[in-house]
Amino acid sequence: xxxxxxxxxxxxxxxxxxVLRAGDTALVDLRYTSDPGADSSYADRSFVxxxxxxxxxxxxxxxxxxxxxxxxxxxxxxxxxVDTGELWIGTTASVHLVVREAQAxxxxxxxxxxx
Length: 115
Prior knowledge:
With 115 residues, this protein is mostly beta strands. It contains no helices and eight strands. The protein has strands spanning 2-4, 9-11, 42-45, 51-59, 68-74, 82-87, 94-102, 107-113. A hairpin with a 7-residue loop joins strand 5 and strand 6 (82-87). The mean pLDDT is 89.
């Protein structure tokens, strides 16, 4: 795993316990915890290869819940965010985004508003 704090990037190579053949599937659970008190308003990811299904979940501290969350995508670096709709914040203080056929190079994410 490599971090580039200047560009706010994290790159991880995930090595599975077997080689996948065409049609095989694997579930990967990657957790990232931001620093307490960090000024954050979004979480996003992009991929080198197309993914069949991608789920992004953001968990908030119960005492620090945002007022609104939206899904978004961005098709090119530095390009505009395309709003994919408001997301429901559950009673578990979490919100999630599901993307079918997440395309390589496209950024998918969740952004939130504190006020």
